[in-house]
Amino acid sequence: MSAVARVSSLLIPISPITLQHKISEVGDLFLLDSYNQLLSLPIVDNGRAVGVISRYELMKIFLQRYGRELYGNQSIGQIMNTKPLIVESSQTMQSASEYITEHIHFPIMEDFIITDKGEYKGIGVVLHLLKAMERQLAKHSGELAKAYKRLQESQAQLVQSEKMASLGQMVAGVAHEINTPLGYVRNNVEMTQQLFTQAQELVSVYDTLVTTLYSEEESDEVQLQAQLNDIAERSAVFKEEDSFAEMQDLFKDTLYGVEQISELVLNLKNFSRLDQAKVDNISLNDCFESTLVIAKNTIKHKVKVIKQYGDIPKIPCSPSQINQVFLNLLTNAAQAMPTQGNVLLKTYADEKCVYAVVQDDGSGIPKEVLPKIFDPFFTTKPIGEGTGLGLSISYKIIQQHGGQIKVASQQGKGTRFLISLPIAPKKAAPPPAQGKPNE
Ligand SMILES: Nc1ncnc2c1ncn2[C@@H]1O[C@H](COP(=O)(O)OP(=O)(O)O)[C@@H](O)[C@H]1O
Ligand SMILES: [Mg+2]
């Protein structure tokens, strides 16, 4: 930071006039080259500034008929302004200009006096002071622009970290969702293994019997009977338990579980492409569905989801970004419910736009809060639960898609978010990569 500019830098050290000066003498002084640029002259007595006389005041006298003759011999003290503007040389430009602009008369007819600990040092020109202030302001606005840029950069970082946070949330959710099918796939495989062992044993006793029957030696009736009994018993158990049918069921279940797992993985893959902001033709109904898969774990105990999907056209958009918006809205809806509630997911279209509604019957948003909810960092939630970025990011994403996001809410009744996206967005503004604030 540069040193603060002081009044001393404006000092013009002119020798002052005294109370003994006569009006006509002062008139002559104003004509001198050295005083040429000045509007007024300081009057100093014993080192103290006692007044100031302006060119204008003198002119008023001299322009009177016989003015010079009538008043020229009088002391300047008689007509001087006894309340000159005085500033200390150590004062900052800022405080001096505040003082002067507050006390100066218009039009400006006087300069100001500069003192050092009360002692006269010289004078300063008001215009110089104003110029200096102007320069300072210009510099400040440069700094302001820089600060704004830094702020923008840090916002981009925060957007990134909110993205990471929601990714983290999703990953946790998906991991949980995968765990359930994984659990029973494992269980099924273990059970199949047991059944398989039984079958293997059965096959091996058959094998022994066949070997015995084919053997050249005289077969032992008793041994044969024992083997037949063993087979009959094992087969009976197998039949009774309907083991082959059970195995079929187990296989079916297992396949279903594996399919569920691959679906989740696919969804996660779609979702995690947040950075790529790939543009695709997609139906908002599908976006709602894949968001639900991801959000299921967070909302399932709280929220009953009601779907009213319309027959809507696909639109070009970045599904991962729209998914993130839906996830933010769904999470907010769930968080707005003290215990349990309903969320309506609705889509419809007209000839220009497709619309998506996320409506909850949660706590609602108080009137005084409503105008702030899209502001970055605005949150009413405790630390750790809310970052206050969800809606501001959602707003930006929808804006970048050429759409609109609107909210209506009634405290105690619920909240409704309405998103509209153009069916054919303007070619000029494809959605840029997320995380780069564009203004
Ligand atoms: N569905 C909703 N019901 C009630 N309040 C909401 C809802 N959605 C958003 N809000 C309010 O808007 C604020 C900002 O939301 P958001 O930007 O997502 O940040 P966060 O959820 O991290 O607080 C929330 O703190 C909450 O007060
Ligand atoms: Mg939120």
Please give a structural write-up.
It is a single chain. The protein is α+β, with helices and mostly antiparallel strands and 439 residues long. It folds into three domains: 7-124, CBS-domain; 158-270; 273-422, Heat Shock Protein 90, CATH 3.30.565.10. It has helices at residues 23-29, 55-62, 67-71, 93-103, 126-214, 221-240, 243-272, 284-299, 319-335, 390-400, and strands at residues 40-45, 48-54, 86-88, 112-116, 119-124, 280-282, 303-308, 315-317, 341-349, 353-360, 404-410, 414-422. Strands 7-9-10-12-11 form a five-stranded mixed beta sheet, with helices on one face. Strands 3-4-5 form a three-stranded mixed beta sheet. Helix 4 (93-103) packs across helix 5 (126-214) and helix 5 packs antiparallel against helix 6. Mean pLDDT is 85; it is low at 428-439. The chain binds adenosine-5'-diphosphate and magnesium ion. Residues 328, 332-333, 336, 360, 362-363, 365, 373, 378-381, 386-392, 415 line the site of adenosine-5'-diphosphate.
